[in-house]
């Protein structure tokens, strides 16, 4: 494999990392020290193997016999046939069988985690398209690190961009950029202070810096770099103070009512927006992930314990002056129940009211990605990003309307308000003794098996005995815990269906608790103390909206040169790039999988990056690193436009361990004195193109 040595701008001393995959600072800010706290999922679900005879009996009643149509279909699917021909948001952009790409490159060499540089292959260029603090409205001031204010930040691009899409208009020369802003890093935004008034002022800046941004973009020709349009008609900031409408069966329920909203239908703001997806009808979905960390709330109920709430000061300090974020305050006990959903916005209409879909369940949503099934219904795949939590699927009640007119668009924007919610139950097909936690392949040569989507709701009613539909949708984790044999996963983050084959790719980032008594290894999560993560390939066996699937582990990530067992879909490991902690996934026009990572600095001591993985043909499983982000940054929201020779990524929390006085990264300005530049790290959206 040809390697291109990276160009290094500067080397800076490295800082130790915490027990988890990130620094202690970011563990506190991003997920409220989830990996240092007690396990949220202490449910004792029996393993699926103990249910095998019951499952066979059920299949016999259905007329499937002992072997089962499911296993037969799985065998066909795993020989490489396409199980479905359902429709995706980008259907028709490329064939599934082609491994070649419009982005030819020689894989770069892994970049040391001490290097503060954005690295791309030879023959490519990169540029920050938009940075934290860049103005997006004519009345917004230019970015000034020393003169931040809530008013300015609400009119500027937000902080810690995560999910990203660039949606081109007809003709391809104009469009909109949509980005999530997950959380803030106060330690590299401000100098330390203990003044209460200043802390409150900064708290209001944090509210304005989070949420989402919609920004118009333009370019002179297809394949050329974009530029932002300050004051574009569709430009919009969504913050912690933006009104949202709650939809679905739980909307208006008692558990969603507060003293400020006795209707239980209007919520201010969105929190912890991580990944997301663009729907076939043109809206954008965003997942509210680590929402618990924004509330000071005594864990005095099973639900609060299950979601990881703590009775302590938060990193934003909002609870000190805003009772909305004090879960112990009278009248606000339910405020935290109004976060943890999939939100949907219309990027084309800045006057539209964004919504939160209760029908899709409440948990630490990484994101949601939609595909239209053969029967016309919308199917969304979702992961709960916590160690030992679950994989979910939502199937809409109504069908997608493919027409391009106002009536169809209005109809489609309500598709996710009603439908059935499912949780995944995986079953392996290897002897239990061969799944020993080492990561070594079983005798049949693959970690694989079959599975079921088990209903939590069906036809507008709860499918969980003893729980109402409101209880299921507001306390979805507790509902899923009651499903016999439900599979605890290794932090399933991004979950995306392939645009042409319909196969679903699940990025399981890592789980250092795997192998414990509460989370024993299983064939879908086969490696104990799983620091490097893995990727699962799932094939729906009865159509995209069906309830049975086959699956196999596509990648067991890690450094193939280390002693830890790795697996790359059978491709020779000495010919692949090291990869650790898969987080987000995307596809190019030729059908290749692309994976961005979050956590490699603490596992394989390399900067995080973006990797291409062919899914078909002799190069299936060949992991090749395309780019590397700067020091202490995470690679987020990959957008692959191989037909244009372009790639976009969101660079989140560069220099997360530093301070303003002693920065550990200067990305992307690198000491520039140009107007709007700053001598500090700035989360940014980066575009890469051939040239």
UniProtKB/TrEMBL annotation:
InterPro entries (UniProt xref): PhoX, TAT_signal
Domain of life: Bacteria
Pfam families, per database record: PhoX
Entry protein name: PhoX family phosphatase
Originating species: Agromyces sp. G08B096
């Amino acid at each position: 494999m040809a390697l291109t040595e990276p160009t290094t701008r500067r080397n800076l001393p490295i800082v130790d990392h915490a027990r988890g995959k990130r620094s202690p600072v970011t563990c506190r800010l991003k997920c409220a020290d989830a990996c240092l706290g007690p396990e949220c999922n202490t449910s004792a679900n029996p393993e699926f193997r103990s249910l095998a005879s019951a499952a066979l009996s059920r299949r016999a009643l259905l007329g499937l016999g002992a072997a089962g149509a499911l296993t037969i279909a799985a065998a066909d699917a795993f020989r490489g046939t396409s199980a479905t021909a359902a429709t995706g948001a980008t259907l028709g952009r490329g064939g599934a069988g082609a491994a070649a790409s419009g982005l030819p490159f020689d894989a770069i060499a892994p970049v040391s985690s001490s290097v503060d540089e954005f690295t791309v292959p030879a023959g490519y260029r990169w540029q920050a398209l938009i940075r934290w603090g860049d103005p997006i409205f004519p009345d917004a001031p230019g970015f000034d690190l020393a003169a931040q204010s809530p008013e300015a930040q609400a009119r500027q691009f937000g902080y810690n961009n995560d999910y990203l899409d660039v949606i081109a208009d007809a003709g391809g020369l104009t469009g909109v950029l949509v980005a999530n802003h997950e959380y803030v890093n106060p330690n590299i935004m401000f100098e330390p202070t203990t003044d209460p008034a200043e802390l409150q002022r900064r708290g209001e800046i944090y509210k304005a810096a989070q949420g989402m941004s919609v920004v118009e973009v333009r370019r002179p020709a297809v394949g050329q770099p974009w530029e932002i349009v300050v004051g574009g008609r569709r430009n919009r900031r969504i913050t912690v103070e933006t009104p949202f409408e709650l939809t679905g069966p739980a909307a208006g329920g008692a558990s969603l009512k507060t003293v400020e909203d006795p209707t239980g239908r209007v919520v201010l703001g969105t929190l912890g927006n991580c990944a997301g997806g663009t729907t076939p009808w043109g809206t954008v979905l965003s997942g509210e992930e680590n929402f618990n960390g924004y509330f000071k709330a005594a864990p005095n109920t099973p639900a609060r314990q299950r979601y990881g709430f703590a009775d302590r000061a938060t990193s934003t300090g909002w609870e000190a002056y805003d009772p909305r974020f004090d879960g112990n305050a009278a009248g606000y006990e339910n405020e935290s129940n109004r976060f943890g959903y999939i939100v949907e916005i219309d990027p084309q209409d800045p006057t539209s009211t964004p919504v939160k879909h209760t029908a899709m369940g409440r948990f630490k949503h990484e994101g949601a990605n939609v595909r239209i099934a053969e029967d016309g219904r919308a199917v969304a795949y979702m992961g709960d990003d916590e160690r030992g939590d679950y994989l979910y699927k939502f199937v809409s009640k109504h069908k997608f309307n493919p027409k391009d007119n106002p009536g169809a668009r209005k109809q489609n924007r309500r598709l996710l308000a009603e439908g059935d919610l499912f949780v995944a139950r995986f079953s392996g097909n290897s002897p239990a003794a061969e799944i020993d936690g080492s990561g070594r392949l079983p005798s049949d040569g693959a970690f694989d098996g079959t599975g079921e989507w088990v209903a939590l709701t069906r036809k507008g009613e709860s499918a969980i005995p003893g729980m109402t539909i409101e209880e299921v949708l507001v306390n979805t984790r507790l509902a899923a815990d009651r499903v016999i044999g439900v599979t605890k996963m290794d932090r399933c983050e991004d979950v995306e269906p392939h645009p042409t084959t319909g196969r679903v790719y699940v990025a399981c980032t890592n789980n250092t608790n795997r192998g414990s008594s509460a989370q024993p290894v299983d064939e879908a999560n086969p490696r104990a103390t799983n620091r490097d993560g893995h990727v699962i390939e799932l094939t729906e066996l009865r159509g995209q909206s069906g309830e049975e699937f086959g699956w196999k582990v596509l990648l067991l990530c890690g450094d193939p040169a280390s002693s830890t067992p790795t697996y790359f879909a059978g491709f020779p490991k000495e010919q692949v790039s090291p990869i650790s902690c898969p987080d987000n996934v995307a596809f190019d026009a030729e059908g290749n999988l692309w994976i961005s990572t979050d956590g490699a600095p603490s596992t394989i001591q390399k900067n995080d990056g973006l990797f291409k993985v062919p899914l078909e043909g002799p190069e299936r499983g060949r992991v090749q690193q395309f780019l590397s982000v700067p020091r202490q940054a995470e690679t987020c929201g990959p957008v692959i436009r191989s037909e244009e020779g372009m790639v976009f990524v969101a660079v989140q929390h560069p220099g997360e361990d530093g301070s303003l006085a002693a920065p550990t990264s200067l990305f992307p300005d690198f000491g520039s004195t140009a107007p709007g530049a700053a001598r500090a790290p700035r989360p940014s959206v980066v575009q890469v193109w051939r040239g």
